[in-house]
């Protein structure tokens, strides 16, 4: 067959341009972007009977032949800003001791070519963000099902969202099959020095590696094959980029979203601990636990909702008396707050994107609704004394999410988020 639609033909002119770019010091990913992190899985993995498969929109047929990523001319290298904090340590001896999982590159799972070459930043990421796809919890654990899922995600991201390629860097199926998401992510991971710009979470698309995990994990936990691969993949990423095992977060830590689901999000302390074990480290319970903002949504009730209502009234988007019920009135107030503050996720869910703006600093002796929210939470938590300055870490403790603070570093200017 000929070259599939969407991939540039490697003409003599393109080859000359790529050669000239390389000579000028530009980034032109080649074999590094096509490699495997480990040997491919043994062929012939059994698939469950067809009756156990959950059909869905991810069943998008893929091309039978896909030219290699080296046929896409590479972009110029983008320098990394000095103000972004560096990871704990660089790749080196640690990376050599960590077993690398097999990661199928874009060619292997039948990816379309990107609309244009992804941007590569000359810096290492400092954290990992864990996502779930919010799709069906399929019982088909086969390689073929994993590849269909990856193609379905790519099609949605490119055709519905209008992005240049898959938004995430890597994808893990319920059967534990790990795949490269955005083109060149694997090659740059193997190199351990640069990162491909993703589109998985605004503000975190360069400084964080995004991993999509197939399924919905609100009430159910991930199956063992997925969990084992997630642990191995995170350990390999940490080793290659020098990311500390404590720097694993959920999507909801930075956005107004339920992602990666209550169950998977609640397992992140375990994930940090197990990844640390693979890296030869031991984490204390305190180190493994991170402070977070509570996720509040319509239908919730109680003191946390009442405190949020006081803060919303303080911000000018809620009228009336706080009553601790996340009803239509509160939903509208949260949505209005998100619009005013230009939130990426304007959905009425109070999560990691809006809490930091809503929970403003309150100083001793202050009056008003923000101070009332502090008093309410202190009484609810039976706290005898509150610090003179109630900042984000103190707010999180009052809200019941004790642990080391979640860092607030964001992407450098110039990230396109697509």
UniProtKB/TrEMBL annotation:
Boundaries of every N-acetylmuramoyl-L-alanine amidase domain copy: 111-261
Domain Peptidoglycan recognition protein family residue range list: 101-255
A Pfam family reported for this protein in Swiss-Prot or TrEMBL: Amidase_2
CDD domains: PGRP (cd06583)
Signal peptide, first to last residue: none
Start and end residues of each stretch annotated as Disordered: 32-91
UniProt similarity note: Belongs to the N-acetylmuramoyl-L-alanine amidase 2 family.
PANTHER family: PEPTIDOGLYCAN RECOGNITION PROTEIN, PEPTIDOGLYCAN-RECOGNITION PROTEIN LC-RELATED
Protein name stated in the entry: N-acetyl-anhydromuramyl-L-alanine amidase AmpD
């Amino acid at each position: 067959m000929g070259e599939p639609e969407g991939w540039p033909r490697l003409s003599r002119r393109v080859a000359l341009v790529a050669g000239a770019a390389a000579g000028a010091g530009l980034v032109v990913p080649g074999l590094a972007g096509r490699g495997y992190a480990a040997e491919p899985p043994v062929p012939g993995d059994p698939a469950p009977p067809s009756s156990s498969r959950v059909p869905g929109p991810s069943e998008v047929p893929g091309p039978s032949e896909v030219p290699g990523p080296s046929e896409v001319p590479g972009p110029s290298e983008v320098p990394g800003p000095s103000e972004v904090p560096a990871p704990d340590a660089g790749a080196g001896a640690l990376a050599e001791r960590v077993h690398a999982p097999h990661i199928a590159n874009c060619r292997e799972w039948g990816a379309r070519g990107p609309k244009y070459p992804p941007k590569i930043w000359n810096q290492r990421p400092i954290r990992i963000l864990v996502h779930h796809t919010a799709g069906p919890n399929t019982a088909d654990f086969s390689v073929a099902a994993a590849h269909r899922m990856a193609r379905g995600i790519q099609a949605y991201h490119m055709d519905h969202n209008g992005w240049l390629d898959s938004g995430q860097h890597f994808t893990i199926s319920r059967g534990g099959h790990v795949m490269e998401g955005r083109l060149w992510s694997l090659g740059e991971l193997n190199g351990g020095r640069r990162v491909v710009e993703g589109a998985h979470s605004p503000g975190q698309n360069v400084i964080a590696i995004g991993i999509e995990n197939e399924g919905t994990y609100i009430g159910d936990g991930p199956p063992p094959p997925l969990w084992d691969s997630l642990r191995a993949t995170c350990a390999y990423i940490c080793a290659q980029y020098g990311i500390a095992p404590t720097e694993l977060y959920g999507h909801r830590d930075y956005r107004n979203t339920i992602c990666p689901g209550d169950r998977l999000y609640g397992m992140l302390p375990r994930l940090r601990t197990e990844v640390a074990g693979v890296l030869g480290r031991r984490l204390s319970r305190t180190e493994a636990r991170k402070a977070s903002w509570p996720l509040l949504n319509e239908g919730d009730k109680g003191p946390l909702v009442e405190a949020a209502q006081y803060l919303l009234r303080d911000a000018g988007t809620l009228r009336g008396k706080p009553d601790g019920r996340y009803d239509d009135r509160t939903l509208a107030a949260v949505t209005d707050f998100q619009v005013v503050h230009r939130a990426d996720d304007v959905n009425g869910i109070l999560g990691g994107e809006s809490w930091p703006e809503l929970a403003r600093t309150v100083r001793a002796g202050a009056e008003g609704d923000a101070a009332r929210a502090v008093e309410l939470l202190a009484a609810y938590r039976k706290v005898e004394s509150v610090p003179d300055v109630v900042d984000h870490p103190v707010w999180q403790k009052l809200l019941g999410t004790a642990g080391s603070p979640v860092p607030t570093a964001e992407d450098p200017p110039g990230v396109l988020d697509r």
